[in-house]
Amino acid sequence: MKLIAAGFALLLGMGFFSPDNQTSFIPSGTAAADSGKQLYTTYCLSCHQASGKGVPSLNPPLAGSSWVTGDKQRLIRVVLNGLEGEDIDGETYNNVMPGHDFLTDQQLSEVLTYIRSSFGNKADAVTAAEVKAVRSAGK
């Protein structure tokens, strides 16, 4: 039993489980995880909330959304260019999301990786090269 408790404590300390029961596959304390979380707090939290559940009828949830865990290129385009007037997973949201094309490719990769691996999401990382390719291709 002590071994199980020690293993859980190790995983908790590495950031695999956060205090609010959100699962993250980026160990906390790493530069990318810390930067992604900080960027989320700065640019995303006010609309999508600390829980990633958004605001009903205004801002879509990031938790459990196919728009977050699905096609990376679509997600990158949304963050670069913003979004307005789209149904997200069958729901309509009325707030306009501004584009965040002022963020660097590295910053976008970090925040998108954070979002894709937080709030119960279990999707792979977004690389700076993937962001650069979408940015270069235009809208």
From TrEMBL:
Can you tell which superkingdom this protein's organism belongs to? Bacteria
MF terms from GO for this chain are: electron transfer activity; heme binding; metal ion binding
Signal peptide positions on this chain:
1-18
Q: Where is the Cytochrome c domain?
A: 31-119
Query: Among its keywords, does the record have Lipoprotein?
Result: no
Keyword line: Heme, Iron, Metal-binding, Signal
The UniProt entry, under Gene3D superfamilies, shows: Cytochrome c-like domain (1.10.760.10)
Q: What is this protein called?
A: Cytochrome c, mono-and diheme variants
Q: Organism source for this protein?
A: Siphonobacter aquaeclarae
From which lineage does this chain's organism come? Bacteria, Pseudomonadati, Bacteroidota, Cytophagia, Cytophagales
